[in-house]
Amino acid sequence: xxxxxxxxxxxxxxxxxxxxxxxxxxxxxxxxxxxxxxxxxxxxxxxxxxxxxxxxxxxxxxxxxxxxxxxxxxxxxxxxxxxxxxxxxxxxxxxxxxxxxxxxxxxxxxxxxxxxxxxxxxxxxxxxxxxxxxxxxxxxxxxxxxxxxxxxxxxxxxxxxxxxxxxxxxxxxxxxxxxxxxxxxxxxxxxxxxxxxxxxxxxxxxxxxx
Length: 210
Known about the structure:
Elements: E1 5-9, H1 13-25, E2 29-33, H2 36-42, E3 49-53, H3 62-71, E4 78-82, H4 87-95, E5 100-103, H5 108-120, H6 128-140, H7 144-154, H8 159-166, H9 170-183, H10 189-198
Parallel strand pairs: 1-2, 1-3, 3-4, 4-5
């Protein structure tokens, strides 16, 4: 049986080494690259592979690598791992086809779980149906006020801006934000944004350039 492969692209050597060690500790073949161009010059389209891709790197950043892969018709699932997780970047990554966006410093088990989900995408036609249905069910359980907070939250507005829009206190927004994250089972803002994009809650809007 072919060993499952994970391409790891990160210009931070320390982070690169620790991620490779983590992946290899669970029996995965981890192939490291310190630049996006080096990865593009050497990767191969295998049936059981995915890419862990940093956002900000010298030369070619992660989003540019994603664009290059899409232009080549690549089917490799992409997981972004980055300390820079502001909403416009996250939305652009997901709209470009990323399967996950994990913030640094990452939880090791969460990263491994995400990698396994990405690898399974190469083994069956799609997993979007059940996941979308689950997200829709969670959305339906939100109260009207929680939905009021959800939309501007995934669009990148700050708690203070949301408070001004809704005519409530920042403390109240904090409370509703916590409830939304819990009800949606989102462990981070990028995860929540990914859910919102997946079920069409977030429409295209201006994204900042890197």
